[in-house]
Amino acid sequence: MNLIDSKLDLDNDTYKTLLESTRAIPWKIDWATMQFAYIGPQIEALLGWEQSSWQTVQDWADRIHAEDRDWTVNFCVAQSKAGADHEADYRALKKNGDYTWIRDVVHVVRKENGEVDSLIGFMFDISERKRTEEQLAGLRRELEELSFKDGLTGVANRRRFDIVMETEWNNACRTKQPVSLLMLDIDCFKQYNDHYGHLEGDQCLKRVAKLLTVAAARPRDFVARFGGEEFIVLMPNTNESDAYKIASRCRELIAGEHIPHDGSDVSKYLTASIGLCTITPECGDEVRAFIEMADRKMYHAKQRGRNTIVNE
Ligand SMILES: Nc1nc2c(ncn2[C@@H]2O[C@H](COP(=O)(O)OP(=O)(O)OP(=O)(O)O)[C@@H](O)[C@H]2O)c(=O)[nH]1
Q1: Alpha carbon distance, N-terminus to C-terminus of the chain
Q2: Which of 54, 199, 200, 250 gives the lowest tally of CB atoms within 10 Å of its CB?
Q3: Top-tier CATH class for 3-132
Q4: Cα separation values, 271 from 52, 110, 131, 257, 274, Å
């Protein structure tokens, strides 16, 4: 016996005390009978079930959340049969009806002939870690959403538009379906800001964004703020005449809001100019050229006196 072994020549009571004073909960299952040979008394403090209520593997399986049960049991049984040490995270049912996250770390003990003799392991309470992970995942989702959203109006930002446009463009190339693009710019918005103030201008942009989402309401229609007082509406699977109807609805909804615009050269209410184009793209066509075309048409709408749609 070496020095370490002799120092660790502890009696059973000492081992038991050591095992039962850890935060992790020790247990042992006899493989032949599928009965608990032992489980630490700490289990009661964690889950509320008395130590004596853990008799069989079924007691363990019954106290696993229904959504985690099949996976956990199948995985642990398969690993144990294969003689592989393993670990599993699952939600365990507490006596009061709540659930808590557990990590079970399992060691497979084999007989000399190689057959599985028993399983021994520790259950760890990982609820705190899971809570932190869930919070972090939530924050990540929020951050991702924010990075694709225009902070003022709540519609998609330019970055998101670029991604969606690329996807829909490739899709239209493949399926040989038309895609339409509407570029909208509020008329005389500089004067609006000058007259009503920048904060009122912000409110106005929010209202216009909302109206566009009402006008372009098909599931794949996509409204984004292109920049400043310019918005863009992408309409996949939409031909020229349907796109024109949506563009007219956008123009009419904005004019119909009767947002006072005393500084406008066009009307006493807020209006917008729209450039509209439709294409069934061929492989090799440039998406950028298509966006520029919509922009040019919007510019022509400005030249033609504003509050109008140019699509030819
Ligand atoms: N309130 C507000 N104003 C903005 C925002 N972004 C851009 N603008 C304003 O939009 C105005 C755009 O002015 P111009 O590009 O001269 O266009 P316009 O006055 O609308 O003239 P036309 O487009 O020719 O009808 C500028 O005064 C910008 O300051 C914003 O987020 N909030």
Answers
A1: 95
A2: 199
A3: alpha beta
A4: 77, 80, 50, 9, 10
Cβ–Cβ < 8 Å for 238, 255: no
pLDDT digits (tens, 9 = 90+) for 56-106: 999 999 999 999 999 999 999 999 999 999 999 999 999 999 999 999 999
The token duo for 211 is 């109206």
Q: What is the pLDDT of residues 34-61, one digit of tens each?
A: 999 999 999 999 999 999 999 999 999 9
Say if ligand 1 is within 6 A of residue 265 CB. no
Ligand 1: centre distance to CA 79 (Å): 65
Report the complex ipTM.
0.93
CB of 224 within 8 A of CB of 216? no
Please work out whether the CB of residue 150 comes within 6 Å of at least one atom of ligand 1: no
Ligand 1 centroid–CA 188 distance in Å is: 7
How far are the Cα atoms of 28, 34, 250, 268 from residue 61, in angstroms, in the given order? 15, 12, 58, 72
Which CATH superfamily hosts domain 148-310? Answer: Reverse transcriptase/Diguanylate cyclase domain (3.30.70.270)
- Token pair 């020095």: residue: 3
